[in-house]
Design a protein that fits this description.
Oligomer: single chain
Helix content: 40-55%
Distance between the termini: 80 Å
Strand order of the largest sheet: 9-10-12-11-15-16-14-13
Shape: globular
Number of helices: 41
Largest sheet: 8 strands, antiparallel
Structural class: alpha+beta
Number of domains: 4
Amino acid sequence: MTSKDLQFERILDIETLRARCDAIADSADDPASMTARNELFAVLKETVTQGRKMIAEMLREDGSGLDCARRISLLQDEIIRVLFGYATTRSYPVENPSTSEHMALAAVGGYGRETLAPGSDIDLLIVLPYKPTPWTEQVVEYVLYMLWDMGFKVGHATRNIDECIRLSMSDMTIRTAILDARFICGARPLYDGMEKRFDAEVVRNTAQAFIAAKLAERDVRHQKAGDTRYLVEPNVKEGKGGLRDLQTLFWLVKYYYRVQSSRQLVKLGVLSRREAKLFVKSEDFLWAVRCHMHFLTGKAEERLSFDIQREIAADLGYHDHPGLSAVERFMKHYFLVAKDVGDLTRILCAALEDEQAKEAPGFSRVLRRLAKRRRKVPGTLDFMQDHGRITVADDEVFKRDPVNIIRLFHLADIHDLEFHPDALKLASRSLKLIKAPVREDEEANRLFLSILTSPRRPALILRRMNEAGVLGRFIPDFGKIVSMMQFSMYHHYTVDEHLLRAVDIMSRIEQGKEDEAHPLAISILPEITEREVLYFAILLHDIAKGRPEDHSVAGAKVARKLCPRFGFTPEQTEIVAWLVREHLSMSMIAQSRDLHDRKTIEDFADVVQSLDRLRLLLVLTVCDIRAVGPGVWNGWKGQLLRTLYGETELMLSGGFSAVSGKERAEEARLRLADALSDWPDKEREDYLKLHYLPYLLTVELDDQIRHAEFIRRTRDAGKPLSTMVRTHSFHAITEITVLAPDHPRLLSIVTGACSAAGANIADAQVFTTADGRALDTILINRAFDQDDDELRRAERIGAMIEAVLSGQKRLPEVIAHKTKSRRKTKPFSVTPKVSINNSLSNYFTVIELEGLDRTGLLSEITEVLSDLSLDIASAHITTFGEKVIDTFYVTDLFGHKITNENRHGNIIARLKAVLAGIEEDVRQKMPQGIIAPPTTKGRRVKQT
């Protein structure tokens, strides 16, 4: 593309620039002087600043990323040419240069491909005929130092031609750089001589080794970047499906075919016209995103993070649509382009593989041997096995019978075959054959259900179907969520990738590969008879994301439409629809409700209604949470689900205890007395009087014994307050138990201290003893893999809690000292919600809050609850990325529910103000410490 095509005259008047530079040299006593250099620097710096400002404006006008990258490259060329010309003809002129006083400046890397992002490095190769001379060193230093002073990140190498050839033969990185080399200025014959020798001595007959090396390098890069192109914060340059993948393809075809553009591959029959256009279109889009990122951030930002996604979407002209925001529409486009890059990779690699086979020595002999190895796939005449890969017998296979498109993937599964690139390429090019008759074909749907429920590797086959475009074409509702992202920190993958990962987790559980992480799910699988129902519900549970209607409700409608097509009975259809509608219920109840409250279990049992549905929903919930992303699942969530499952199973099977709470509490007191039989009688009797009914009913006996020893040690040491820590590696939870004089603001101070120490609270159990002390257990998410490291961290947090409670440190100050939040939440907005419900518990009012997470939020909420004279019986903290959902079981100071509507309104208004960040900073009014004589007036419910 010429400078005229790029409207370069709007960016730079090259004749005017040269005239200004000449004027500087002409007016200077010494053009090499510092004064002249400074004047030249000012002119060039101004030219670059104004030029790049215009380029940014033109990017907003025409939206072409490739044109933007080429304009920046062309501007850089002219700056370097002017600078080099000034250095060689004005600062250090040589009237009759010898051969050794020649040099050529070449661009390499991305710059060599005539594309630069605003923050890209400027990679230069300075080619010399022999060793450097004093003159060449002066010129090189002049050019490089000027570029560095102008703020460019310049990478450079100064070599003679022999060194270029020798190093490129031994170093693949240098070979790739010279492959991209492009002449800028200087001695053209010198550069041409290097290029000819490179082609003859390095490239010739080494294509196979180069291709293997670059593909291996790509695989390592993908592994570092997460090995998926569907991460919601992708790396535009290095990530899978990003610009580096396209550049790798360019290297491969340029090295093998010796072409300079993707269009030339059409003439060679490697790409179709559509595919060549797709190559350019994908490259143009990715460059547009990258250039906008660099202009926006003012640096070489390659990660498309949440912080900038909204602004990039706006710059690229995306708008909100019903069900999808502008940023989600932009990111869906991004992932579709990344998928296209994957398709192009597969097509080009297949072509290169075929070409290399043809060039191998003894090709005809190899061909005869391969013909013997190619054999029919059992049970079909349309597909062949080729070195363990399934391929088509001829190019008409799918036209003869479009159901063969689905059969290709089914046969690959049952015969454990990989896919030949030719087969996937033909499948992608045959998508238009998948129409209503294929979708309604009984055999096609039977084959698909067999793939989905395969005992081998269903997720892998489904992923290949998705990459080829077949899955979204065969199930159009699935096609709507292909490459769709959810703009939140909680979800790590696109919706389609999340669903396929959920299927993979289900398969691994069924194969017994997750027995340590999910013992309950594995143990109940033999009791689940509806395997196909479960797999289908897992595949569909998020299929209605991105619609205006709630995705669970809309998804149930989709399930009712699809299930009959795949042969499900009306009863099975209803179960699938119910699972999709309720797929979030078990997770939300387990994480945000008091599981020791009988009303919680009764209400959930009313939703589930049968043991069969309970089992199905448990497994679906596990798969859903696990597939969200790394680190989202932990043993604590597993324990909550197991508790909810166990209690609900008892109720549904009629085994839930009908014995009154008082009777069960008395039985617990007797068991504790028996466990403390080695204590002196009087001491034991006094201790047993300390705990009220809620404590005895909800705390496990082992924990009661630990608490008894902890309280005893604290008393014997004469300490007014103390903390105890322990880790749960399996649950990924660390437990901090606090014993302190009771105080209305105790929980607020404790949670604030945890926040100041950088601890993410997962749950809290709070109790009051009969002698006016608080016994609180705070559960925080684990931060270290090793127990020793985690224990040291927990002890530091415990020490922080003690220091704040004793008044040695002021909470507002320690929170203020923690200036940076653990999460970046600025790009997100969550509408504050507060609800008050008296029907979720027989004894407590349940307050649920939803809002944007931030450091110290929980402390502020509990402080306001204390201001409102509410006693907190239990707190359940759930974080979904940037969003927090906190649930508090509370009463008034007399142990009663909050029933007054006016009081409800005041509570809601105060808590919404906290969530919105406009509540007065009540932490400034907190007491310095709470050490005080024990009081019999507690802050919490003593009896229920």
